[in-house]
Each structure stands twice: as C-alpha cells, then as structure tokens.
Amino acid sequence: MLLSEMIRKKAVRREAVPAFSGHCDVLVAGLGTSGAPAALAAAEAGARVCAVEKLNLPGGTATAGGISGYYYGLPGGRFEKTDALAQQLRVLSFIEGGHFHPDAKIMATDRELTAAGVELRYETGICGVWLDDDGATVRGARLVSKEGVSDVECRILIDGTGNGDVCALAGAGFTEGRASDGQPQPFSSVRVFRSENRFASANFDAGFTTSTDAAELNRAVIDSNSLHCFPPGGAPPARLYYITQLPGHREARLIECDHTLTAREIIEKNWNVQPFGYAYSNFDSHSIDWAFEDDLGCDWMVGASLWGKNMLAPLSLEFMTVKRFRNLLVVGRAVSVDHLTASLVRMQRCLQKIGEIAGNAAALAVRDEKNDVREIDRAELEKRMRASGCLDESLLPECLFPVEHWAEELATRKPGEAIFYAAQHLDRTRDTLLALLAGPDPDAAIHAALALAIGGDDAGAELLREQIRKRDPYVPATSRNHNYPRLEAEAYLLGRVGTPADAELLLELARERLADYQTFSEAWRGLLTLGERFPEARPGIAAGVLPILEAEDFRLPVLFRNHLIASQARYEPMHNLFRAVTAVRFKKWGIPNRLSAVLSKETLSWREQRLFEQL
Fold it and tell me: Which of 529, 498, 571 is nearest to 289 (CA)?
C-alpha cells in the first residue's frame, strides 16, 4: 500500500504498511459549510461515517467564521432542517441577529450529527492518505490528534477542508487563483458587535493570501486581526463582542475533477452535466485589480459593468469527483471551477447543497458496493435531491439577457446586459450596432462601440479613441454596486481593437492618470494587449512604459472594498506587481529592461515572488 504525505509543499508517496485501528464507510475531512452536511447526509442515508475536524466545532465560515447569514443562493435542502433547529435553540437561549446564531447552529449541527450516528473527532487533522498500489483508490487516512497518530480505513473519502488540503495531500492536481499571478480572491476578516438589541457582524476585505504557504497565511491572519483595533481617541460605531479568528477565504485551491465548471458555461447556459442542485448568485468577485484578470472577467466586469448580474450554475457530481481517483470527492469552495466561477459557487446555501449531494452519492456507492463513486445510481441520487428540496426547478430564476429589446437598452443608464448580449451575438446584432454607431444618440453609439469591441470588431474603434481623448466621465448604473467608469472600458478595449498608433493615446492617458489606479491599470492593460497583437508596436510601448515603472518612486496602491471605518482602510501596494507582470511580458517580447533589478531591491509578496521566478 502507498502512504501519500505532504513534504515541502509536495505530495510524496511511499510504500508502507497501515495499522488500521478503525473502519468507516465514509470518512469526511472537515466539518465546515459543506463537510458537515456531507457527513450528515451520508449517515442519514445509512453509511457508517467518521468525521474529523481540526477545530473544536462544526460549521466553518458560518460559525467560527462569523458569517451568520446568506447571500443569495436558493432555498431547499437538508440544511433547512438544521437552520430550523438552530432557530429553535436561538429563541430559547440566544440574542437575535443574522439568519442564524453561530453558537445555535453549532449546537444544532452537533445534535444532528450525533443523532445520525456520525463518529465525531474534533481537534483532529489528516496528515496522510492511504492508497492502493495503483494510486487511484483511497483505502484510508492517517489521523493526528491529541492521542497521537492513527490510521482509519474507509471506502469513500470526502474532502471538506475548504482548501482542498486532503486532495492535495493525496496527490490530486489543482490550480490556485487567476492565471496572471496565481492570486485568489481577497480574504475577509469579521467582527461581531451589538446593534440595538441584536448581534450583528460585518466583514471587510483584509488582504490577499494563499492557503498553500503556512508562513504567508500566518502573516495575513496576524496582520488582519490588528485592523479591528481603533486608534487612540477613535469612536467605533459599536463595541466589539469579538473578532473571528478563522480567515474568511473566498478562494483557495481548486481541485481538478472530471469536469471544471467555467464562467463561460454559466453565462451561455451551456453545460453537459446533470445538475443535482443549483447555485445562484452574481459573480461576487471582490477583485480590485481587474487589469490582471482574464478577458472574460474584464469583459463582464469592466466592459459591461455586470458585477451585479445574477446567474445560475449547475451542481454536478462531475465537479466533485476528483480526477485519477475512484473514491475521492471534494466539496466546499475547492470544487472544480475556474477562478471567476469560484466567486459564485462559494455562497453558503450553495456549499451546503454540494455537501448534501456528495454525502448521498457516497452513501449510494457504499450501499451498492461500487468501488468507483461515478458508477452510482444517478436516478436514485436525483430522487433523493428532489425529496429534500435540494433540486427544485420551480425555484430557478430565469437569469435572462435582453433578447428582444437589447437595442433600446443600449440608450439607457443600465446598458450592461445589452452590451454583453450584443457582443456575444454579433452575427445577429452587428447591423443594428453599426446603425446605432452612426445614429443620433451619443450614449447608444458609445455602448454599441463597446459591444463591438468586446466581440472583437473594430468598427467602433474611432469612437473609443474620441471618448478617451475627451476623458469620458460617464459611469453606468447597470449594477447595484461596483459600476466601472466607461473610460476604463474604452481604454481596456481599445487595446483589443485599436491599431499600433493608439499606443501613444493610451500612454498619454496612463501618464495623466498615474495616481488613479483603475484608469492607469486599464490603459496599461490596453498597451500590453496592443503589443501582443502588433509586434511592431512593442518598442514604442516599452519606451513609454519603462520610464514609469522603472522609476524608484513609482507607487500605485489600491483600496480594498467594504471599509466603513477610516481606520480600517486597507490598501494593497501594486507597483511591484505591475513591474513583475510587465517584466515577464517584455521577456517574452525580447525587450531588455531593468524591471527585475528594481524588483530585487524590495521585499516581494508571495504572488510577486512567483512571477519573479519566471525572470
């Protein structure tokens, strides 16, 4: 048998002989937002379940993390019973506030897990995974607790750690963060306080961190906790009850499974998987540096300003079944999705549904003696999900784009959905867009130019240039929050449809807005995009960009979101990231520069170190 262990950040397998001191059908690692429902569902379906949790309580983000409410997601599922029990306990013993009281939910979850016969092991972690010699079948796990190290045999292993820790330990593949620099979403820090006769919680974006580097994670936690302190003489809006110590990770490892659900599939409603439930939310990205995100993300958020557009996403077995393993499932925010989709499926209602689906799937595999969880009776799984309310199509919002009246919407203050729809269907919309481009309504014309540019059509490029020269002040009202100024979209998209001569216009904008992070960054991105498209433009782009980035005093911080108190304002220094990404690009282009020398004089963050290694 093989024992897979994490050694210096890599999964290493060695031959060994286990000393199994216990056996279960389903071993659940982590009792957080998805892990607890997974353990409960599997046990209530008849499986013998052992659940281990490194903390001394269940619930994860909902309890230890202080997020005692729901942001979108759909009702229905086994979690509703847990919440009802938590509400009963709150009425008896706790102050009101939130959708549920964190401690009441802890008690309710513990009671239900115990009643279902789950063997609970708190303050216990997993430090190894036992595999058959083929390396594809999990046979058990090595646990570490106050009693020491022990081995437990299982037939199905469910990773509910939230960070994909056990999957990575077993040797599963994963990605982390966005493509440009590996950066996940910002993490949050939560404070709990009294508001009149209720308790309330609030979270704010506390910085960037990675779950795969212990030292970096420690630094981030210590640093973010200090942000809750008020300066001498400060007047806090409410006295704090406590600060939650569990970092609010919005994104960590994303484990490679049989199917990776992408934002493109969600937007186009084009998925070839069987849903056993649905996620429902906007792409609730807390990114503040969109110039470093991929094209689809920028088109959606900056080009069309669609942050607030809600979408549906299928919860399939395929994005939980881990590649190259027969009986390993992942639940929680580490399921197999792309970077943008991670900001949609992480909502608590969604994650609880994911756990319920996985727990039932594991129990069916045990019942039917299937060595591969993929071979379960899917009709039976669907029946169970419908019975619990986890799968109920009658609750699904339509999440439509304006198909019939899109042209009229381009003339409104909320043009985003029409812009994106028209861009994705240029074969049907282009003639109308060209007519609007030449028409009397200036805003409709500009929005038509944006739609054409998102679709890769340069017919509106001259209008984009004109608006940049005018320093277009327009801000759309498409989304309830986080609408991006149109000037930023124009600068970003001119890089996609402009000509080499546009480099000077974008350089002029970048120099002028050097202290304005968002506008500067989109002009910078537009320049790099032009350079990718036109090799002949690269020397001129470099000649304009390098004096800015190589200057010793170049600084460009950006403010994180959700700061209601001035003393807690959190800025992220971005100068080294601009330098590192540009240096990597210029290396590809064969353009000499001294950006790496400037970088080497300063302390680099973990994400900048990753880029620096490429130089």
Answer: 571
